[in-house]
């Protein structure tokens, strides 16, 4: 009998890529690592655990990965809706963001972390401002994160130039180097807010540090037309000319693309993040995800920020991703429930070049969630993957573990004081010059 | 000081059609009726209550109306997904339905009622089988419902012919006449499963009894082509020739319509129920709801059955309804959060000719829900209607009242024993010849 730290026992276990459920599944965890995942009767013969967590109605699954968000924008959730993009951004979001401080970003990020833990998210990929502050919050609350300071041609609320934001990125890489849960990325904002030289600088830094480079790409038809007007080619082709396309590039949105763009993304092995709810809400359109999969592109899933979603609920996002393409293309076999779950687990891990995530098997990181299936809306259950995608919501998650630490146990957060956090918010809204 | 039965006090109150939030709102209830709804300081001067329910972080809203479902299909939730409609229906749903009994329908309906109460639903409109049994469950659990026995050309699991189903409808009308919460409707299934004579009989009964007539209409392009092939006109025009179109007709789905069909529905004042998630999941397409509203058609919202959604969460349905049309039409101003809420409240009440529902004002029925807004995903709050539609989910509902009776209080159901209900389900799945 080998000693382990945790034995987590459920009614059913979903381990990895093929998403086949294992009845009476359990996971043995030592340190930050999964030692074994499989049927409890087998594990019980091999391991003796310091702590056993029994969830007789629990569905154990790999922790979800939110591959695109702007965490601190929880502060602006529902601030302005149902408006044209330009009015929304320039009339509401930019003026509010101009008042951001590291303290406010810390609060917004903690709020986002609490919400994400509550929906079974164990990793997130963040592009925003004051990312050093974001990293400190992530370090403290225990989530896993990829963090990138937004790089723009114009001054941002945190830096007066894109060059300084790139310098900051380099500093963050040094500062957070070797942290087991925090990875710094290079985040040029978009092809239209970063001139060619800034994109080249971003790429040079990413290459030098073997870092991921993350960019919003082809989010709208306007962007597509604007880049064609300015550069004579599509946004995708523009990035290719600048040598940005490659398997270390994570392209967010990818809504307005030609067939040639899709082929090029596939040839260069660019990883794509699908944000269906934000794309719908901001009226950008629907990304051609079935075509991406057909072309062999790795597709991950993101909520985008709470200002354009308006939640960070990856379970609801899986639901939307699985339903939307069926309806639009009038083909019910597109994006199965298993595909949608993979976008939030194994495929996201592949996009991040971290195949020790998004799955539960010997050697993978101990990032997992347990969903309480003993609820009226989750019974009967013929297919747990179907229920996860089409029915389960954040309130159904009972436990969350990241790197072998319980961040939520029986619906109680262990690293975030929610009461204090919620009380802190009213003052913050005033500081932002807003009314709640 | 007038005595009332209940004073329900929240942080904010949404009363009716314009959905403007009232801070520190409260509702005074006597019997099954709202005596007053407005700011608490005003109400506190006029009323003394037997029971006061204080929800300092509560958002009080009119109870949601699920305008289309097949409640007992909760039994088949997730039984088969991501399949072509014909395979799904004929290979999975029909064979399972063939084994239905009144006992099984009672269980599935009770399960649906528990789920609907948990998401703030106070009224639902059901088209299914063994509706007398459904009515008994509704009578007992305390919801408000419009119930119709499905009428088909071929034998259903409950009746051997359409004529017998119509006879049963008449019997149900007599039996449940005068029930304060149960209304019987006439439910011919579709234009392609009911020959002209059956549709005419349905219409005659509806007219004679001043009842609503409810039909699935133009759900798919296949139906549109099939009716054109058989009758030479569109499904809408076909019903018009049979004199079915009118303000007592509730048409479900309405996805595949021509501009002429939309004009005709508007001219005849037909009420339409939008079921966006089911239409997406079954790959039927997207109903032209912005065009309906432009034409002045009353639009309500429904989840459809749990077999094609796969939940009965009207809050998630509002979210989808508000986002989907923006994205498809690339216009962020379409279907505002307030529109989506109205589809689930005031507009649904109008569709049902019951303007004492879907709102909270003097004289309306005391059907309401309270949402607990003191949660990380619902803070900060600049606009409660935005949060209700874009963020809140069933787990956020704290209290539900129907006709002056609390059906859920602080998240505990008062009329349904959930533990017993959940335990009862495993045997049922075996009885259906299925595996869970």
- CATH names the topology of the largest domain in chain A as TIM Barrel
Which two chains touch over the largest interface?
Answer: A-B, 73 and 73 residues
Gyration radius of chain A (Cα, Å) is: 21 Å
Helix content of chain A: 25-40%
Q: How many DSSP E strands of chain A?
A: 20
CATH C-level name of the largest domain in chain A: Alpha Beta
Total domain modules of chain A = 2
Low-confidence parts of chain A lasting 5 or more residues at pLDDT below 50? none
Report on the biggest sheet of chain A. 7 strands, mixed
Q: For the largest sheet of chain A, list the strands in their spatial order.
A: 3-2-7-17-18-19-20
| Alpha plus pi helix count of chain A | 16
CATH architecture of the largest domain in chain A: Alpha-Beta Barrel
Write down the overall geometry of chain A.
Answer: globular
Q: What's the pLDDT, averaged over the residues of chain A?
A: 96
Q: What would you call the quaternary organization?
A: homodimer
Rounded to the nearest angstrom, the distance between the terminal CA atoms of chain A is 57 Å
CATH superfamily of the largest domain in chain A: Metal-dependent hydrolases
- Structural classification of chain A: alpha/beta
Strand content of chain A: 15-25%
